[in-house]
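Changelog note: in this version the structure field was regenerated for every chain. One regenerated record is shown below for reference.
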Amino acid sequence: MTKALSKDKWKYALHTVSHPADGFYEIRHRGRGSVLVAIIFTALFSISFSVNRISASFIVNDTDPRAVDSFNELCTVFLLLFLLCVGNWSITCLMEGKGRLKDIVIAVGYSTIPATFCLFLGTFVSWFVTLDEAAFYYMIVGIGIAYTCFMLLIGVMTIHNFTLGKTLVTLFLTLIAMLLIIFVVLLLVNLINQVYSFLYSIYQELVFRS
C-alpha cells in the first residue's frame, strides 16, 4: 500500500501528463504506474465534475445544484471506468494487444488528470468572468477534455504497441464491447428477476394450499 502511494508514483503520474508516450511506455515495461493512484485520480475527476456542476457560475452553468447527486456521479464514473477497461482488455486480447488489465486501468486513470485540473480551474475562473468572457471558461474546460482524450489515445496505443489506425479501431470496438456488456448484464438481471418471480409464485401457491 505504501509503495503504491509513494511520492515517486505521484510524481510519475504528473510526469506522464507532460510526456504521455514515454510515460505510458515506462508504465507498461518498467511498472512505474500505480493502479491505486489511477483510481484516486479517477475519483478526483468525478469530484471535479460534481464541483463544477454545483459551484460553477450561473453564467456558464444552468444546473440546479440541488439536483446534483455527487455519490451517484462517483458510482457512474467508476462503472464507466470498469466497462471501459474490461471492454478494451477483452477487445485487445483478441487483437494481440500487449497491455495488461492493470496497464489499461492506469492509462485511463492517469488520462483524467488534465480534465480534472481544467474542471477545477474552469470552476474558479467562472466566478470572475462576465457573459462576454465566458469563452475563456469553455476554452479551459475544452482544452482539459481534449488533452484527456489525447492522453487516452496515446496510452492505449503505447501499452498495446498498436499503430494509430489500429488504436482508433480498437477504441471503436471497445465502445461496442461496453454496450454488449451492459446489454448482457441487463439481460441477466431481467432473467434473475423472472426466475425469482416464478419461484416466489410457487412459494405463495404452496403456502396458500397448505
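Spot check on this record: The mean pLDDT is 89. The helical segments are 7-18, 20-30, 35-55, 70-94, 101-111, 113-126, 134-160, 164-209.
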